[in-house]
Amino acid sequence: MDNAGYTTLTRQSGLMREMTVIANNIANAATTGYRQQGLIFSEFIQSTGDGPSLSMAAARVHNTSFQQGALTQTGGSLDFAIEGDGFFLIQTPDGERLTRAGSFATSAAGDLVTNDGYPVLDPGGAPIFIPPDATNLGLAADGTLSADGAPIGQLGVVEPVDPLGLTRAGGTMFVADAGTLPVEDPRVVQGFIESSNVDPIGQIARMIQVQRAYELGQTFLEREDDRIRTTTRTLIK
């Protein structure tokens, strides 16, 4: 295979990865708190001496859009959404995680938990206990929870110390290896959840572009294969 073939193959490989990312975005377009992913292509150029340079493409770096998702009203007393910056702080068996998915419930022990059963933490990193007899649960904009007007806890709303170092931990959770800081002026609303920030129409349009680019590359490879076969047969005769 000549250099043009190798170059096309590297691009095809990246396009296949991007198609997987797009499909995952579309599949999670209705997932609460999901953040849209993208794929970054890089080009590596190598000199070949007197001949033309050789260009190879790679697509191994994922990026994430943290654009605000639409807020959907549910009326649930344990449904919360953050307006602006910040994440809810969650405790998992693998350590603390950050998420924008604010559809919570209470555990058998009375702790506020995610739908997966992970405790939701307060600003100090402690679980939030909801008394079983608590009625008229209210929420202040800073995340302070109250029952019948009496404060009972506060949602931890944090942001990563190193935003560029934030990595996915599957689904709607993220890991901040460099640690977190409390958001100075959080804005949390009750009775709402934040929808996925996936742009379905944009993702479908990109899917079509990727598919067409892949087909063009495939056509080129097939023609190159035919050319080489024809040349070989001619030389053998």
Automatic annotation (TrEMBL):
Segments forming domain Flagellar basal-body/hook protein C-terminal: 189-233
Domain spans labelled Flagellar basal body rod protein N-terminal: 12-35
Domain of life: Bacteria
Protein name (Swiss-Prot/TrEMBL): Flagellar basal-body rod protein FlgF
Subunit structure: The basal body constitutes a major portion of the flagellar organelle and consists of five rings (E,L,P,S, and M) mounted on a central rod. The rod consists of about 26 subunits of FlgG in the distal portion, and FlgB, FlgC and FlgF are thought to build up the proximal portion of the rod with about 6 subunits each.
Family: Belongs to the flagella basal body rod proteins family.
Pfam families (alphabetical): Flg_bb_rod, Flg_bbr_C, LlgE_F_G_D1
Matches recorded under InterPro entries: Flag_bb_rod_N, Flagellar_basal_body_rod_CS, Flagellar_FlgE/F/G, Flg_bb/hook_C_dom, FlgE/F/G-like, FlgF, LlgE_F_G-like_D1
Predominant subcellular localization, coarse grouping: other
Domain Flagellar hook protein FlgE/F/G-like D1: 81-147
Gene Ontology CC annotation, any one: bacterial-type flagellum basal body, rod
GO biological process terms on file: bacterial-type flagellum-dependent swarming motility
Keyword Secreted: no
Compartmental location: Bacterial flagellum basal body
Species of provenance: Pseudooceanicola algae
Keywords for this protein: Bacterial flagellum, Cell projection, Cilium, Flagellum
Designated gene of the protein: flgG_2
